[in-house]
Amino acid sequence: MVLAGLLGAAAVPALGRPAMAQDAEPPGAIRQRERHLLNDDWSFVRGDLKSAADADADGTDWSAVTLPHTWNAKDSIDDEPGYYRGPGWYRRALRVDDRWRDKRVFLYFEGANQVADVFVDGAPVGRHVGGYVAFCVDVTDQLRRVKPGRAATIAVRVDNTHNPDIPPLWADFTFYGGIYRNVWLVVTDPVHIDLLDHGSSGIYVDTPDVSAASADVRVRGRVVNAEPETTWVDVVSTVVDARGGEVTSRRTRLEIGRGEARDFDLSLPAIRRPRLWSPESPHLYKVITVVDDGRGGRDRVDAPLGLRWYSVDAATGFHLNGSSYPLRGTNRHQDIVGKGNALSDAEHVRDLQIIKSMGANVLRLAHYPQAPAVLEAADRLGVILWEEAPLVSTATMSDQFAANSVNMQVETIRQHYNHPSIVFRGYMNEIFLRPPEPEPAGYERFVVNLARRLEKTTRAEDPRRLTVMAVDRDDRYNSSGIADVPMILGWNLYHGWYYDTPEGFAKHLDKEHADHPNRPLWLSEYGADSDSRLHRVDVQYLPVDPATGGVTYQDQSIEFQQLFNEVYMRAINERPFLVGTTLWAQFEFGSEFRSGAIPHVNQKGVTHADRSPKDVFYLYQALWRDEPVLHIAGHEWTHRTGTAPDAPWGAGRQPVSQPVKVYSNLDSVELFINGRSLGRKQPDDVCAATWQVPFVDGGNEIVARGVANGKVVTDSVRVAFTYQAPRLSDASVPFRRLAVSAGAIVQYTDPQSLVWAEDRAYTDGGWGAIGGTTGLMRKWVNRSSEDPLYQTYREGMTAYRFDVPAGRYRVRLRFTEPSENARGNRVFSVRLNEHVLVNDLDLVAVAGPRTAYDLDGIVAATNADGLKVVFDPTVGRAVVSGIDVTRL
Ligand code: GCB
After folding, report:
1. Residue 584 CA, ligand 1 centroid: distance in Å
2. C-beta of 525 in contact with ligand 1 (< 6 A)
């Protein structure tokens, strides 16, 4: 859309109602300062303009956008590698209100990724570096040049180009660009509480001493006098309780010269028998600070206040308000796949509610500071936070990188100082994961020194919080000395996923604990990817490659993720020395380069990207919540297939025994299939109970039943089961259809609910592959959303055989070239019995590498031969990803 010409006054939208007007009147009846949300009526163009003045000119293809906005919501999830990293411009008209004539006017951005330059009518008013915290610019002088009632053009150039001096540099999440958080217009009197201290509220509340008996509150801040003469101001800080009643208060008087600012520091009379803040009882007070010059110049800023005290101990973990308090929870990115990082406040709050409903008491904000709405929700709902600066995986050995890193930490601390939910402050994640190549001399020393500097800054800025750093499984953290810098060391461990078996992580933690008995430890990440289209009947650990120590196949089934999390939770519960544990991750999130079963998405979420819980969510709920939890861990496995291998010839369709698991914190649970009880079981130490359930061909109703506090609790799920006879020509089980996911150890359910069975070797009378080896392509598939079907494959087989009865069959074949093979390096022919389906198929030539390619054919089978899909290689080895055989 092209917006013609300069936006005249007539086109300028009216501002909404001041956001704070509905607040209760504070003591002294001074309202909070005027704030207007400025999210509407922006225009956006991706790319650069020659100058800010062009934001006012014709000739650019602007499109209308509403904030929060990112330009990478879609290009980060398409088949094309990479996403746009460069500049984009936003502009908006702002009608200048007559009432602002003697006021100060500011623009407050909650976040823009990652460098933002702000202009008013072409004149620069401020620049901010760093994509994950707020910044504030004073636009008073520029707006004074605009006639009241006329409009100014606000233009913002935002740039998310990779910049070696701005963290984060490389990480497993997408660096979406844009003004992806709220923008506010703030109007104050000339005498006001400072807004320009690193984007903070200007008020810093401390609780130097809190106990059950009493709490000390100290309030610091700075008052600015933009009047043309010296003035006296009264500053009053008052603590009010949840009902608005005054609890304690103190005042002071300041003389402030014209154009000057003065600091104040108020120690309020102690609060006797305070109501404490905890995740179970997140009681909030409020600190209202008012300045008044007695001549109409006034300002007010409110800050949340939660009274709690805590400590950490290497042997006994975390303590809150005097009691041992194991922190159990999760990690979250600000991300919704398809929307990127441009989440509304309501979406942020919903995420926190989900986390709370799972029973988590702690949340690590990975790997950067998150929106104000997140922190407010954590205060209110009761979730302890670990907040961290976005130094991830690597650093640039430059003074500017170090300076930006320190500045980001200072901004984060000052902006979020008053949130009682924040207890932990981090500043690095797996910083030695990807050193620059080649690694410059002195790099390790640089990184360790940067950590020391960040630690020192954090302690100086925020002496009452606890510092923490997350590291990956690498000796370098110990050998370099960086592990000793923070107060707490967090380990991100992926035993059983990227390497080793799941139990390995407990051994690792035990060794660390024994080697460093005075170092408090946190399990900051652990997790496994999953996809609800993938299921594993006999779930087991992944085989470990003896040569590399890595796993040979990544089982992304829902069932493996459950097993993995159970193993971890069992070991976690046995290790009281752990300060905290935070699973990876609460929600699936966008990571452009990722290529699991759902490309561009990190699938380790215990909740899907759309926020629906995976079954494993209930493992945590059962473990962590006191309310009754009873959940069949099979709501995502509603279509199954299988064989009764020992069924006698001619016996018809037999029940097939497959496991069904229930997560519950009830004493005992009874499971039923189609109305028949399978007995009662007691959930184990990780709240799991599993039954072998005889599924019949067709519909099955599974019901779990328990009793909690005298009340019956149930859960149920319907499962459509497709029986496959062990011998396909058994007339008592007329053959219908059989689909196989070549190379897979899991079942795959396609969009039509057809279940593609696990691959297997041919057995007489049945079906399967003759020869060949299986493989898993760790790359996304072009031109299909059925990635998991195409990603697994078998190659080098001579045939797949199906010993079906005589008849006509439709055969659908699914192919992809899994390697970066060039054209001509793999050429093969495919026959359906004697009938040639394709000669000299070269997948790269017909489709390209890693691209879905399908062939269908019809063939007649005779009793003697059944159906053979024969692969004849001309060059290299034949490959196939799926075969679907339907009787016509
Ligand atoms: C990690 C990182 C995190 C990744 C995660 C994963 O160790 O800290 O950013 O997303 O592993 O899933 O690989």
Report:
1. 7
2. yes
Q: Which residue is closest in CA terms to ligand 1's atom 5?
A: 172
Q: Which helix (H) or strand (E) element contains residue 329?
A: strand 327-332
Q: Is the distance from the beta carbon of residue 604 to the nearest atom of ligand 1 less than 6 Å?
A: yes
Atom of ligand 1 nearest to the CA of 604: 12
Closest CA to 624 of 663, 575, 669, 657: 663
Q: Which two tokens stand for residue 399?
A: 């003074």
CB–CB of 654/724 below 8 Å?
Answer: no
Question: What ipTM, to 2 d.p.?
Answer: 0.99
Q: Which amino acid is at 470?
A: A
Which of 58-67, 339-348, 378-387, 768-777 has the lowest average pLDDT?
58-67
Quote the Cα angle for 390-301-224, to 5°. 90
**Distance separating alpha carbons of residues 508 and 843, to the nearest angstrom:** 45
> What CA–CA distance (Å, rounded) separates 172 from 651?
53
- 224, 242 Cβ separation under 8 angstroms: no
| Helix (H), strand (E) at residue 144 | helix 140-144
pLDDT band at 16 (very low <50, low <70, confident <90, very high): very low
What span, in angstroms and rounded, lies between the C-alpha atoms of 38 and 41? Answer: 8
Per-residue pLDDT, 14:
46
Q: In the 3-class helix/strand/coil scheme, how is 102-133 assigned residue by residue?
A: CCEEEEEECCCECEEEEEECCEEEEEEECCCC
Query: Which residue's alpha carbon is at the smallest distance from atom 7 of ligand 1?
Result: 492
Q: How many CB atoms lie within 10 A of CB 433?
A: 17
Going from the Cα of 392 to the center of ligand 1, the distance in angstroms, rounded, reads 10
Out of 494, 525, 564, 592, mutate this one to test ligand 1's pocket (max ligand atoms within 8 Å of CB): namely 525
Do the Cβ atoms of 320 and 424 come closer than 8 Å?
no
Is 430 among the residues known to form the active site?
yes
For the CA atoms of the chain, what is the radius of gyration?
A: 31
**Tens-place pLDDT, residues 859-869:** 999 877 899 99
Please check the confidence at residue 3 and state whether its pLDDT lies above 80. Answer: no
Annotated catalytic residue, options 227, 376, 430, 559: 430
By the 8 A CB rule, do 598 and 531 touch? yes
Looking at residue 99, the DSSP 8-state letter turns out to be G
C-alpha 382: how far from chain center: 20
Residue 21's pLDDT band (cuts 50, 70, 90): very low
pTM for this structure?
Answer: 0.96
